[in-house]
């Protein structure tokens, strides 16, 4: 089922939290809405569900305009952050509730419940109440309840955020597998970039109610549309150095590198990821700095260097070591460097492309 | 009493806990301890106090019971307490109430059961619906619309009574005028009331003592010829108890997470079905407590029953009071009546108390 949002807006009183969202989600696609808290992603999801009415704009499911349709007629299943299990019903009744509402007869219902419960590994827990389950099991009950009636659209509102780190990783894998198996269009809201990168076919990054970039995860990472996206995605975050472009080269305190094709620009932010840099001996490389901190994380070493006013993080292999305070040079390992306008944050691109 | 009083003592060692973490004097004396950790002496003391207090609470019931087995002579002779020792028990009062009075006992008893239970069920049903709506739906009635409604209502009443216009025509014209007002002029007014104002208005109906309204109510039922019927008492009791139900149930509904209802909505449930299958089961403790309270209020109600019933719909409180009518207080008959009168309420309490438990919502939304 395709989902289309056309210039969706939502205001609470005088505050506009979603400012004209246009979005097309393809059939069977796994789309992740990613953004910091308060960016309007959950509100957007709730409008698709019908739990909030849009202040303006239209919402289409398939070719049907559902903007003013009640939630129960939209054929949507939603997994809530809180799971929203019915505490007075057993796991079996919780999972079967959507079918019970559709007056599916008892045997058929029991068969369907066993089928989805098997998929999420809950067969041994059907007689229990939600209060007798662990967080991960409750999460799976919520998933099973959403899957049982084979909706045309899944909505998930930070479904993994209440789980501990290990379980979250496991459920992420399960979720991706199940979505692929069922082939149901899914819109997933999260503020966790790892979840977004691993799960999504495409990621929609939002900030302050506006869509920043809509692209597959790899493209978001390799070709960020603006300063916000570049800074939001990636761990450790992208290094930013303020400077200016003049005569085909970028200059900042302690940095000088050529950037052919870019026209002159007054205030520029250069962005480069930690893994695209190498620490080299002093005097070599495009940047000069001094080591500020060296952190071994296991399979790699993060070297933080002071370059002018800013701190630049470089990812080196795990055997690298150096005294703090040593003067070093930093070289670009491959030509992966991005330039942004310092004021508006828009990406600057070379003229010839 | 406060935390500061202990920390200000100079004898405290320098490394004492911050005063916030220390038990205050008040807590040390009054905070209940686990019964298992009490010393034998304190255990004895605790149980002595508890048994004494149980005695104080239960003694009136005991006195009631023994009085129902006393002859008039035993009552007027001064206090006697122990059957077979102080006095010879007699079942004369019981046989008078059950055999001599017979139907005159059973009819009010049945009336009380019918009226109290029916009015309680209706009040709890409608009251919780209103309470649910007030917790989940935002209402914004415009002040001017309410004003216009009262004005039009007054005009209809006056024109019906003074000008002799048939009431059907008056109501129809009034309703049409009001709808017209809502569709046109009402849109120009901005000031409106909220849910809390509605709730206050509902509760304010109970602030007025019933004795103020009892005469108009009497005249009303006289006009429609419903005096001394079950229906009249059920309707009046329901109306009187509705505000209490709304007020109590609203707090219970407010504790139910909205997520559950939104989830059910997406699962395909209608609002009414959500109310019946999700909200009501989760509000069971509140429902049980409210039901009991309202039942007891209806069961004991005297003033309205006195005005609205004479014979056919007479209730138990009237019958009890009647034992004090012509021949002075008949304590022995009264005791029998009160004993049988408290039985249904005790039975309901026993039946419902297992619902009045906490923790029903565990597992709903916590991770």
From TrEMBL, chain A:
PANTHER family cross-referenced by the UniProt entry: MALTODEXTRIN IMPORT ATP-BINDING PROTEIN MSMX, OSMOPROTECTIVE COMPOUNDS UPTAKE ATP-BINDING PROTEIN GGTA
Organism for this UniProt entry: Denitrobaculum tricleocarpae
Pfam family, one: OB_MalK
Gene Ontology CC annotations of this record: ATP-binding cassette (ABC) transporter complex, substrate-binding subunit-containing
Keyword Transport annotated: yes
SMART domains per the UniProt record, alphabetical: AAA
PROSITE patterns xref list: ABC_TRANSPORTER_1, ABC_TRANSPORTER_2
Protein family: Belongs to the ABC transporter superfamily.
Protein name in the entry: ABC transporter ATP-binding protein
GO molecular function annotations of the record: ABC-type transporter activity; ATP binding; ATP hydrolysis activity
UniProtKB/TrEMBL annotation, chain B:
Gene3D superfamilies: MetI-like
Subcellular location: Cell membrane
Record GO biological process: transmembrane transport
Gene Ontology CC: plasma membrane
Chain ranges passing through the membrane: 43-65, 109-134, 146-163, 169-186, 198-219, 231-253, 274-299, 331-352
Predominant location: membrane
CDD domains from the UniProt entry: TM_PBP2
Membrane topology label: Multi-pass membrane protein
One Pfam match: BPD_transp_1
Ranges where the ABC transmembrane type-1 domain occurs: 109-352
Domain of life: Bacteria
Keywords from the named record: Cell membrane, Membrane, Transmembrane, Transmembrane helix, Transport
PANTHER family: ABC TRANSPORTER PERMEASE PROTEIN (PTHR32243:SF52), MALTOSE TRANSPORT SYSTEM PERMEASE-RELATED (PTHR32243)
Family recorded in the similarity comment: Belongs to the binding-protein-dependent transport system permease family.
Protein name: Carbohydrate ABC transporter permease
Organism: Denitrobaculum tricleocarpae
Taxonomy of the source species: Bacteria, Pseudomonadati, Pseudomonadota, Alphaproteobacteria, Rhodospirillales
């Amino acid at each position: 089922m395709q989902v289309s949002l056309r210039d969706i807006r939502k205001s609470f009183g005088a505050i506009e939290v979603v400012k004209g969202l246009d979005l097309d989600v393809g059939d069977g696609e796994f789309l992740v809405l990613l953004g910091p808290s308060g960016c309007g992603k959950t509100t957007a999801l709730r409008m698709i569900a019908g739990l909030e009415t849009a202040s303006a704009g239209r919402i289409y499911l398939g070719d049907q305009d559902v903007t003013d349709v009640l939630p129960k007629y939209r054929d949507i299943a939603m997994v809530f952050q809180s799971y929203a299990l019915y505490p007075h019903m057993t796991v079996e009744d919780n999972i079967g509730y959507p079918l019970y509402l559709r007056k599916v007869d008892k045997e058929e219902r029991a068969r369907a419940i066993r089928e989805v419960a098997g998929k999420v590994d809950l067969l041994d827990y059907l007689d229990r109440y939600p209060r007798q389950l662990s967080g991960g099991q409750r999460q799976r009950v919520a998933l099973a309840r959403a899957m049982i009636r084979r909706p045309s659209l899944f909505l998930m509102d930070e479904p993994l955020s209440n789980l501990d780190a290990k379980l979250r990783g496991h459920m992420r894998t399960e979720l991706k597998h199940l979505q692929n198996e069922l082939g149901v269009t899914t819109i997933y809201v999260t503020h966790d970039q790892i979840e977004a990168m691993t799960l999504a076919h495409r990621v929609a990054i939002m900030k302050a109610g506006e869509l920043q970039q809509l692209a597959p995860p790899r493209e978001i990472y390799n070709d960020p549309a603006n300063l916000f996206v570049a800074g939001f995605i990636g761990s450790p975050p992208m290094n930013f150095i303020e400077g200016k472009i003049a005569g085909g080269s970028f200059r900042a305190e302690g940095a000088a590198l050529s950037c052919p094709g870019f026209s002159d620009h007054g205030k520029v932010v250069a962005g480069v990821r930690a893994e695209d840099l190498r620490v080299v001996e002093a005097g070599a490389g495009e940047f000069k700095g001094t080591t500020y901190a060296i952190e071994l994380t296991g399979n790699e070493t993060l070297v933080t260097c002071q370059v002018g006013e800013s701190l630049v993080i470089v990812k080196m292999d795990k055997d690298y070591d150096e005294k703090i305070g040593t003067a070093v040079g930093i070289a670009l390992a491959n030509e992966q460097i991005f330039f942004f306008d310092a004021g508006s944050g828009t990406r600057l691109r070379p003229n010839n492309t | 009493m406060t935390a500061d009083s202990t920390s200000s003592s100079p004898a405290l060692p320098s490394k004492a806990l911050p005063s916030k973490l220390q038990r205050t004097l008040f807590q040390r004396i009054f905070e209940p301890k686990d019964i298992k950790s009490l010393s034998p002496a304190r255990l004895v003391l605790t149980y002595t106090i508890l048994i004494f207090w149980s005695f104080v609470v239960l003694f009136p019931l005991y006195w009631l019971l023994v009085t129902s087995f006393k002859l008039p002579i035993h009552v007027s002779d001064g206090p006697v307490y122990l059957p077979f020792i102080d006095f010879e028990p007699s079942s004369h009062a019981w046989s008078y109430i059950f055999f001599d009075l017979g139907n005159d006992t059973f009819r009010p008893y049945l009336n009380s059961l019918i009226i109290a239970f029916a009015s309680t069920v209706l009040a709890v049903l409608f009251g919780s619906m209103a309470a649910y709506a007030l917790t989940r739906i935002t209402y914004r009635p415009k002040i001017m619309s309410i004003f216009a409604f009262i004005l039009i209502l007054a005009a209809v009443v006056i024109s019906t009574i003074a000008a002799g216009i048939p009431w059907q025509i008056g109501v129809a014209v009034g309703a049409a005028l009001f709808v017209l007002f809502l569709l046109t002029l009402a849109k120009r007014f901005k000031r409106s009331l909220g849910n809390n104002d509605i709730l206050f208005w509902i509760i304010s109906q109970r602030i007025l003592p019933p004795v103020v309204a009892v005469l108009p109510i009497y005249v009303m039922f006289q006009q429609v010829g419903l005096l001394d019927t079950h229906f009249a008492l059920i309707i009046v009791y329901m109306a009187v108890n509705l505000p209490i139900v709304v007020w109590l149930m609203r707090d219970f509904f407010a504790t139910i997470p909205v997520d559950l209802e939104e989830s059910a909505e997406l699962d395909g449930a209608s609002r009414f079905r959500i109310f019946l299958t999700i909200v009501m089961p989760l509000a069971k403790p509140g429902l049980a407590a409210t039901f009991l309270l309202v039942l007891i209020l209806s069961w004991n109600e005297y003033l309205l029953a006195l005005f609205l019933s004479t014979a056919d719909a007479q209730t138990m409180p009237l019958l009890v009071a009647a034992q004090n009518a012509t021949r002075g207080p008949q304590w022995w008959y009264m005791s029998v009546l009160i004993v049988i009168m408290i039985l249904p309420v005790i039975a309901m309490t026993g039946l419902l108390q297992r619902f009045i438990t906490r923790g029903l919502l565990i597992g709903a939304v916590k991770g």
